[in-house]
Fold each of these.
Amino acid sequence: MNPATPLLIGRSSSHFTRVARIVAAELGVDLAFQPVYDLGSRDAADYGGNPAMKLPVLRLGAETVFGTENICRTLAERFPGGARILWTEQLPGSAARNAQEMVWHAMAAQVQLVFGTQAAGLPADNLYFAKAAEGMTQVLAWLDARIDDVLATLPQRELSLFEVTLFCLLEHLDFRPSVGWAEHPRLRAFAGDFAQRPSAGATAYRFDRPAV
Ligand SMILES: N[C@@H](CCC(=O)N[C@@H](CS)C(=O)NCC(=O)O)C(=O)O
């Protein structure tokens, strides 16, 4: 591998990892990829040194970057040639910023639900998960009611972090079902449109399997 090639440590099945991959693709940045096969590992070294044991992590030479948004911003700073991205602080007002907050919340809740009930096998009817699932259901209905208006208010852009995160969340709900979103036609339409982008097509969710 070229030592200058940025390395992303993550999972092809992870919605946070996919956000970073889509942003990299839109910026025209080639990323080397190091999959983390076992989310049960409790060794920070398996997570690129992230003490929180969370993914993704970016390595840029000797530099390490933790956190999806940090990674996206770092890539955009270092590789400014590609798509111009609209960041959270450039969203035009409370409606759009609230929508971004709801998407980040739902992404974290999806980790809670999938990791807690599907990976760790804890009971889904426990208050901790039941409340998270209800909150996620309400967030999806809230977003469906507002998405068209929010998108209409966004300034001219090639891409916004809001759209990338929302798309990665929605497709992840089909890949690792936790709560339904079949009844949300406006979100479906948004996801269908976004899925046409080459960056989305090149980053479809799948489970990484170690070579045997
Ligand atoms: N704040 C982190 C959250 C990332 C996150 O929750 N990643 C999930 C994978 S999709 C993870 O590391 N899960 C492992 C765990 O929760 O133990 C970010 O923005 O990157």
Amino acid sequence: MNKTVYVLGLGHIGLPIAAWIALSGYQVVGIDIDRNKLNDIRHNRVKIHEHFNGMHLSQLVYELVGNQQIIISDHLSRLDKKPAIFIITVGINPIENGEHDLSSLQSSLDMLIPLLKEGDLVIFKTTMIPGTCEDYIAPQLIGRNIMLAYCPETIAETRAFIELNANPRILAALDEKSWQAAAGFYRSLSPAPIIAASSFRIAELAKVVQNVIRDVNVALANELAELAELLNVDNQELRELVNVHPRVELLQSGPGVGGYCLPNALGYLQASIKETDTFKLELSELARKINQTRPGKVVQVLRQALAENGKQMENATVAILGLGMKDYCADTRLSPALAIINLLTDNGVRIKAYDPLIECCEYQVQSLPYCLDGADAVIICALQEGMKASLQEMAYYLSPPLIIIDTRDSVETWEGILLYRV
Ligand SMILES: NC(=O)c1ccc[n+]([C@@H]2O[C@H](COP(=O)([O-])OP(=O)(O)OC[C@H]3O[C@@H](n4cnc5c(N)ncnc54)[C@H](O)[C@@H]3O)[C@@H](O)[C@H]2O)c1
């Protein structure tokens, strides 16, 4: 008989994980302190954009909850007295001055600690400030005869079920018994390789470094995009040619880097360095700065494009397409599109925004034609499922001349348009 698995945190990571574990035959108990999230699950209104075998996550968890394969609650209580598995998926939010808020981690521990019994296995999935497991979590759990492991998550939004099954996992644990128990649990879920890390700290660091590398890579792509423009060569073609090298992967330039993971990674690294150390992460800091300038760069290009065509930004109406923090994504946390909208509205621009999967801002309109209709320019911030306008459609609706600012290299050049790639 399988152990009961308790998943604390039913957000972007926790909810697909809970469903994935339930699909493998475990009884799952999902806990989230946010009652709105629990109501969304109960009423099939989950907006996290994941699919399993063609079925939306919302419908999937609705059915799993309906037949009690997942039991959801806003507080933690044990279903029975047998040893169980607890998976913690809450996040660490940055607050001002480089500080971080560990209150979600602490509240999970506060829920968990009074209920723990000998033989329980606790697995943390949270992306950690390196040192958190050893210095903050383990001291609260050690001595309770439980097993403790850390297994950082690498799934990308929209690919959760594919990547939960396929991505290799880094696994660190308190001791050999904990490692074997956690590895055995993961082997029961998928054949993905499990890579042993020699300490919690190195596993935490490896996870954060994976995110920093992507941030730095995008910053380089953004810098090279500006160089390509200066040298009058096509940036997308440049990237394709660069990536011909089998050991080079330049990511795509764009309007900035959003989401919960990449923009927060540098802060986690910085927080792991003692105040007394003089060491600085100069390259990663510069990369972060470059990526943060990108929404402003998009606005600058728009201003110039409008001016070249006798229009002023202050009197313009701009259509914003795609609000996700990246392509084909419904997560808007730190989305560059929203940063661009804020900059534009600060400059008096009238905005009409469209994204068929997302409801997140006051400027949103319900249809693509209405979004484009009469706009002086369109900015493609992110691609999205169910949102594709042909150039003919744009030409029909936009106010001439046809100004398109494309941050995703998604529009072919065409005689009738003034295409600006950022
Ligand atoms: N989103 C991603 O693509 C991704 C990828 C890899 C790793 N991660 C990491 O996974 C972690 C979670 O990220 P997320 O995107 O799922 O965050 P999220 O905000 O979507 O989900 C976290 C959930 O935890 C809940 N919560 C907070 N305190 C709680 C408590 N005491 N008990 C129960 N629930 C509680 C919140 O209400 C929220 O629903 C983060 O550390 C993140 O860095 C995220």
Amino acid sequence: MANVVWHKNFRILLDLTRDDLDHPEFPGLWDLIYATDRFYGRRGVPVSERDLQCGGVCRDMGVEAPMHLRMRGGRREAVHERREDEERHSVPMSDEHKAYQERILRAAQEGGFGGDSEVRTRVGRTWIQTDTLIEGADGRRIGWEVQLSTIDERGLRGVRARAGKAAKNGITPAWHTDRLAYAQRNDTHWTRSDRLPAHVIARNGDLRIVSGFRVLDFWHCDTGALYPCPHGVRRCGKAHATAKPRDVLFDDMVRQTAAGTIVPIQFRAGKTVHRYWVTNVDRDRLEDLDSDDTRLPPEREDTHATGASRNRPTCQPATAPPTAQDSPPPDDFPATRPLLTALPLQPAAPAAETTPPTLETAPPALTQREAHTPQATDTTTGLPSELITLQQAADAAHLKLQQLDDHSERNLQRQVWLQAAEATQAAVTHYARTKRLNRYEVEARLRRLVRHPAP
Ligand SMILES: [Zn+2]
Ligand SMILES: [Zn+2]
């Protein structure tokens, strides 16, 4: 038996514990569905070909489990057709799982965040079932799902769909496991701890996340760099990021994801989409690397001037990011804004620190490029020198942004670059319109001219 039934054709979940099945908008729904099911029964229609499936654990695990309805002692009941589906409901939650749920709630509470276990969030006509849901700062909701080695692989069916649905509905999915094979999947942002008994998980002592969290090493692609350029054999002079695994305390992870100071990112490398957690400071800086005039980063609210954010995390992460505590945009789950930067996948740190060029010694892109471009109108492309100068200025501002290490300096420089980029964009639009040219082609020509000047 189960209390929640999925109606295949109506595409709604029915809550049998409620008189109106939790659908006040459809009066008489139970009578209709029960009568229909009885009618199917009398006609000898197999349960699997009728309208109803288990909407509880079975559906959560991506299993289509046919059900039929009956009345027992005046109570409405939905019955699984197959015994194996019924058994899925009776598997008791392991002590380890319960210990994790309690630990998540306790860690969150110590950080000033509330939460609850086994939460059902109404989403339109269906629900999202969350193992442990933490209510974080600024309306942020973190949906913890714990999948331990005590369950079998069937529990992993539909992970991507479930995580995606949660993310789409404002719940940042945080899946945690103690099994290596799960942690290596990249269907969601998995974190992993060592396999531990319940009494250790329940204790207050150190519980470490050993995979799933990374720090980004930002470096400059010059002759002193120890990593190879991800874009080619030669040095490109740009800034790149390399992700390095780093342990983080489980309790910190719970609090900082709620505070928004640890955030999920994803990026594509070849055919694989990699997903892991980083500090919001690293995420912001990666966006600065990844951004472009035509794909400007989202506006960020910088809380530096006004002081700390409303919900400070109670402790700094092991990675000790800079002092910034700025609030990410509410839609900080990256499914909607994938980061496409090609991160090279070296787990090892460089043997020595590479010294980034200071701003004064950095190649003065603007002057260098001016040598290639005449002042009035470029002879090969016919583009006005005003456009060329604007694009050069924007590119120089962007290069400077990518080379800055200091968080607040980057916030200022980002504004400088955004203004320069917007001015360029506006000028390109104006020029294309006046000359009745294709705007996209003008922009592409301009960039080719400025970024790849003919030798
Ligand atoms: Zn079921
Ligand atoms: Zn490079």
